[in-house]
Structures are given as structure tokens and as C-alpha cells.
Design a protein that fits this description.
Elements (H helix, E strand, L loop, with lengths): L1 H4 L5 H7 L5 H10 L6 E5 L16 E6 L2 H17 L4 E6 L14 E7 L7 H11 E17 L3 H13 L12 H6 L13 E8 L13 E5 L1 H9 L2 H10 L6 H13 L7 E13 L1
Parallel strand pairs: 1-2, 1-4, 2-3, 4-5
Antiparallel strand pairs: 5-8, 6-8, 7-8
Helix pairs in contact: 6-10, 8-10
Length: about 280
């Protein structure tokens, strides 16, 4: 995605303020996985949030991303890892998801993961590339979080929709489409080709609607407006809005947080219950 390739984008802030993924999700993936645990590849890895946890389960881990800017924090963490570990390897390659076979041999990968990135891909091309490099019985695991929801304040979610999607004065027009719309819809429109993959399962969690928890939960009982502001700063739409209007002395995150605080009497430190929508997809070559 072009915004994340912008050299002005703060990829370190992104790494520090985006949600991480629970061990229960990786356990669900490995319970499904029938192949070896030699090589895992994280596609669209960005700063490595979903990549480094794979080292617990695989001997060799590769992260790929088209943005050298996003890979900068990942490569810094790689240096720290290599100073402490010699029995496992990790490397990062600047490569589009649609060109995986240009950097990976055919039938060489046991697990391909894609965290919070599938909505930016040309999925027809990506699925073909994933099939090429996966071993027989290799696993493709795709997951993402969608939108945070304030569990105890329905009107806060209405304000969220206004600033993030509905009102053209704010961030709605600043998302790259159709990717954001795919994600907002839990990527229900993305279908894996049945001639390439089998045993496909998809599990969604929709806050305040789903009847039970899943292996992939992102929730906080102590979420604050200070946390939320930092999260907003990591968004591509925030970056794009500020590039367009920030020169006028405006800050869309401050406007958004300011309205929430005024409406509900919150401070930067008020603790709130928040859950993200999530989904994950598992498939086998």
C-alpha cells in the first residue's frame, strides 16, 4: 500500500501502537497445520508484529513486504534477535505478495501467514503465488482485526463511524479502496480458489454480536483516549488526512478524541472496555 511506503510514514510508531496477536491464535493455526515446522513465511509483514512470534514454532522464518520503510523496525528487531539466538533464523525481504515466487523456491514453505494485509493484495495473483511456494499439505493462514468497538458506549461507536467512514470532512475519503471496504466487511468477498486450496475454514468475531469467543480475541478493559490517539496516529488514513489538511494547523486525531471526551466527559486516562472485530482463515494446499 502506497501510504506505508511513504518515507514520511512513522513505521516505528506503527509497530509500537498496533495490536499484537494472542498465542491462542497461533495455537489454533498449528492445531490445523499438518505439515512440517521448518519454514514459515509472513507475507505483508510490515514491521514484523506477526512475524517474530512464528520463531516459537518454526526453525526458519521469512517476512516479506513491499515497503522498505515498514521493514526498518523489523530489521532492527532482527539484529537484537540474532545477538541472542543462533539456532533459529529470521530474515526480511522487500517483495510484493504477488511476486512471492521471485524470492522463494517452489514447494519450499510449510506455512504462509498474512496478518492485517490481505485486503491490500491482488488476491487472485497472491493465491497462485502462495500455492507455488507452499509444500503439499502446507497451510495458508490469513487473519485481521477490523474496527474497535466501545462496549459500553453505543454513541461512541456512532462518532467513530462518522470520523472514520461516513463524513467526507474526516478520514473516510482518505482510505485506499477497495481494500478498506474489504476489511470492514471482514473480507467476506475474498474467496480462496478451490482448485488450489482445500479444507478452508473462516471464523469471524463481531463485538456485541457474536455468541462466543474465538481463538483470536483483541480486547482491553483499560483502554484510554491516550491509547486511542496513538492508535489513530498509526493509520494510513490519518497520515493521508494530515498530509492534505495538517498544514492548516489541524489534527484529525485531536478532533476525533476531543469530540469523544466532550461528549462523555472522558479524560485521557478514563479506562474503557474495547473489543476489535477479528477473523481468521485457514486453508491447505
Amino acid at each position: 500500500m502506497s501510504t506505508f511506503a511513504d518515507q514520511k510514514f512513522d513505521s516505528k510508531h506503527y509497530k509500537d501502537n498496533r495490536p499484537t496477536y494472542p498465542e491462542s491464535l497461533y495455537n489454533a493455526i498449528l492445531s490445523y497445520h499438518k505439515g512440517e515446522r521448518e519454514t514459515a513465511v509472513d507475507v505483508g509483514c510490515g514491521t514484523g508484529i506477526g512475524t517474530f512470534p512464528l520463531l516459537k514454532y518454526f526453525h526458519h522464518v521469512v517476512g516479506t513486504d513491499p515497503s522498505s520503510k515498514m521493514l526498518e523496525p523489523a530489521n532492527e528487531l532482527k539484529k537484537e534477535f540474532e545477538q541472542k539466538n543462533t539456532d533459529k533464523t529470521i530474515k526480511f525481504l522487500c517483495c510484493k505478495a504477488e511476486n512471492l515466487s521471485s524470492v522463494l523456491p517452489p514447494d519450499s514453505v510449510d506455512l504462509i501467514t498474512c496478518a492485517e494485509a490481505i485486503h491490500w493484495f491482488d488476491t487472485d495473483k497472491f493465491f497462485k503465488e502462495a500455492y507455488k511456494v507452499l509444500k503439499t499439505n502446507g497451510t495458508l493462514a490469513i487473519w485481521a482485526y477490523v474496527e474497535p468497538r466501545f462496549l459500553d458506549y453505543p454513541k461512541a461507536n456512532e462518532i467513530y463511524e462518522k470520523f472514520v467512514f461516513d463524513d467526507d470532512r474526516y478520514m473516510g475519503p482518505c482510505w485506499q479502496q477497495p481494500g478498506k471496504s474489504y476489511l470492514r466487511n471482514f473480507c467476506r468477498d475474498i474467496k480462496l480458489p478451490t482448485d488450489l486450496f482445500s479444507d478452508v475454514i473462516k471464523i469471524d468475531y463481531v463485538p456485541m454480536k457474536s455468541n462466543k469467543k474465538t481463538a483470536f480475541q483483541i480486547a482491553r478493559d483499560d483502554y484510554t483516549m491516550a491509547d486511542f490517539r496513538k492508535y489513530l496516529y498509526s493509520w494510513s488514513a490519518y497520515h493521508n488526512w494530515q498530509q492534505k489538511y495538517g498544514g492548516e494547523g489541524k489534527n484529525i486525531a485531536d478532533m476525533f478524541v476531543g469530540e469523544l471526551k466532550e461528549e462523555f466527559g472522558w479524560t485521557d486516562d478514563t479506562k474503557l472496555r474495547v473489543e476489535w472485530g477479528t477473523f481468521y482463515i485457514l486453508a491447505r494446499k
